[in-house]
Amino acid sequence: MSRYRPVLIFLWAVWLAVSTYAQDRDAIENLALDKPVTVSQALPDYPSTQAADGIREGLNWWGSGQFAPQWIEIDLEVPSTIHALRLVASQDPQGLTVHHIYVSEAGREYHLLHTFEEITHDQQTLEYVLPEPRAGIRFVRIETVESPSVSWREIEVLGTPDAPIVSAAAINVDVEQQPEVPSIIFYNGQVVTMNADAPSASALAVAGEMIVAVGADADVLALAGANTRLIDLQGRALMPGFVDPHTHLFNDAVSTLGLTLEEAQQVALSYGFTTMGNLYTEPEFVEQMREFENDGLRIRTSLYLIANTNCGDLMGDWYLDYPQTREPGELLRIGGVKIFADGGTCNRPAFSYEDPTLGYGDLFLSQEALNELVADVQASGYQVVIHALGDRAVETAQNAIEFALDGQPNSYRHRIDHNTVIRPELLPRYSEIGIVAVIFGTYPACNPFSDPPPPPYDSWEWNWRGLIDANPGLHIAWHGDDPYIGPISPLGELYSMVTLHQIDPDGVTICDTPEWLTNKTLTVEEALPMMTIEAAYALFRDEEVGSLEVGKYADLLVVSDNPLAVEPESIKDIEVWLTMIGGQTEYCMPGRGEFCP
User: Fold this and answer.
1) Res 176 pLDDT > 70
2) What average pLDDT does this structure show over 11-21?
3) What is the structure's pLDDT at 56?
4) CB of 573 closer than 8 Å to CB of 590
5) Which CATH class name applies to 180-240+546-597?
6) In principle, which of 99, 138, 537, 593 could form an S-S bond with 542, CB 3.0–4.6 Å?
7) Judging by DSSP bridges, how do beta strands 29-30 and 151-161 pair with one another?
8) Are 578 and 592 in contact (CB under 8 A)?
């Protein structure tokens, strides 16, 4: 009998756990319901939130749109005790699946909890009851390493919150549980959230790296503890940090700016940049940035690896040595692969007409060659960013992305950056294909690239108004492309987008708008999302940063005035007083210490 004793003890423990779970089920709730969800990738029509919304039926699921490996993570928002997990599959066809379930406390050190490995089918429920309830869990992560398709109809985390439940009806949050005791509360301000469902508030609370409450002063201040730092905004504005998905501040820090990486970073922080995409990354620079990550990188930075140089020379598939990453909160990320379709800093943009200064320009790759390159990069799992200035390059880039997607949604978020000249018939194709468009924030009125194109081609150039009007709902982001069009200042570029004037690189002179551009002005309501939440979308960061919402990282700014409330001409005078990343003060304007935790 003794040789069966271990088996009997194990069976008794499982029976006890199941019995306890059954007895306590009235107190147990689905902790995952309507909580923040982060994923490796998502199809546009099947967002991550649909995996935790309580709906199992119909066309309601999260779909990655990609083959394994893929992952999904749920933030329970408060430390919780987990009793069981229930996963409802959305899978076609039936086949072998392997799912690793990881859990983590607030510090995000993951531990393997369980592995499902079996033949599964659509709408099948996978359930795991823990032998003993596990307390203190904040994050639950499901990593699928093998499956015919990667998507979930519903994920349920069954248990009880460790923190007491309180009413939060008056607080602008999606949870009914008390947040962690805040380390910092900003109040008596204008909180510009960039969250369309709740665009404004007066107070915001931070605990550790995360935003834990956004709402009215009285409700958020009620969460304060004995050690909470209270920051009276005195009516000033709190807004998300600026996100630039296309910059060269780091890779050209030494050669163009004469600055070290740390000095370039400090410049960026002083202007309110909290997240950036570095869009010219060679193998040596990847290693430089990895060293910088260890030495003091503070701005969240996505590196885009070049498939060809700015002169068009192909680099081979070296990027395969650096797989794309999507780890929530990571400071240094491999964002994707960049391809130059035409000239710019080397050779000339490619036009379909003869430009008076630049001629027809230089298209670096034939349509067939670009099709093949984009498809190959996509097949390796990378997001593609295509540099296209002239309309001939834009058309070739659109065709190549359409070819690679082959009728599927653009879950890779493939981008075309610059889009400086767009023929009218190309405008609606962005939405038809689902391309993410990234546009300049500043027109170089002080130092134009070339003479104005002859009519009617002048209406094709810098036509952001036409791009927006032709593509309702399209994801459009800005970029500074710094340091090539100065000065380095996102607020200065916002001023330029809504007035079509440019602040000269001397920081003082205002250059007049060319007459042929005067009908292309954007509104602040259109432009500011491009510089925050839409730019975060272009970098696959929109579930982490880009708006001030519970469950996102506390990457935010205190600014001297609200860009949405002042006259457009006054935007250039707004100052950044505080830049915070992950709850840490990274820049404080001299003399404004009362606004800096």
Assistant:
1) no
2) 46
3) 82
4) no
5) mainly beta
6) 537
7) antiparallel
8) yes
Question: What is the CATH T-level fold of the domain 2-161, as seen in this structure?
Answer: Jelly Rolls (2.60.120)
* Distance separating alpha carbons of residues 422 and 72, to the nearest angstrom: 37
Rounded to 5 degrees, φ, ψ at 387 are -75, 120
Per DSSP, the three-state class of 12 is: helix
At position 298, the amino acid (one-letter code) is R
> For residues 436 and 467, what is the distance between their CA atoms, to the nearest angstrom?
12
Among the listed residues 49, 34, 201, the one whose alpha carbon sits nearest the alpha carbon of residue 556: 201
CATH number of 242-545: 3.20.20.140
The candidate with the shortest Cα–Cα distance to 395, out of 368, 372, 429, is: 429
Residues 6+ apart with CB under 8 A from 243: 273, 274, 275, 276, 477, 531, 532, 535, 536, 539, 541, 545, 546
Nearest to 63 by CA among 84, 98, 37, 86: 37
Contacts of 455 (CB under 8 A, 6+ apart): none
CA distance 97 to 143: 11
Angle in degrees, CA 286, 484, 354, rounded to 5: 115
* Residue 106's pLDDT band (cuts 50, 70, 90): low
My answer on whether omega of the bond before 93 falls inside 30° of 0, hence cis, is yes
Tell me the per-residue pLDDT of 54-66, one tens digit each, with 9 for 90 and over: 888 778 888 888 8
pTM of the model: 0.73
Helix ranges (DSSP H) in 193-324: 217-221, 261-270, 283-295
| pLDDT band (50, 70, 90) for residue 164 | very low
Domain boundaries, the chain: 2-161, 180-240+546-597, 242-545
As a whole number, the mean pLDDT across the chain is: 89
Same CATH topology for 2-161 and 180-240+546-597: the answer is no
At 372, which helix (H) or strand (E)? Answer: helix 367-379
Dist. CA 412–CA 276, nearest whole Å? 18
Phi-psi label, residue 258: left if phi above 0, alpha if psi -120 to 50, beta otherwise: left
Handedness of CA 112, 114, 119, 121 (dihedral sign): negative
The whole-number pLDDT of residue 16 equals 45
User: Which pLDDT score, from 0 to 100, does residue 178 have?
Assistant: 56
Among 361, 364, 370, 360, residue whose Cα is nearest residue 399? 370
- CB neighbours of residue 25 within 10 Å: 12
Q: Tokens at residue 400, please?
A: 């190549």
- The residue with tokens 């598939």 is 317
Is residue 77's pLDDT more than 90?
no
Integer-rounded Cα radius of gyration of the chain = 25
Per-residue tokens: 85? 């997990």
**Cα 528 to Cα 491: distance, rounded to the nearest angstrom:** 10
Tokens of 156: 């349920």
The dihedral formed by the CA atoms of 544, 546, 552 and 553, expressed in degrees to the nearest 10: 90
| Helix (H) / strand (E) containing 308 | none
Are the CB atoms for 350 and 393 separated by under 8 Å? yes
Residue 380, SS3 per DSSP: coil
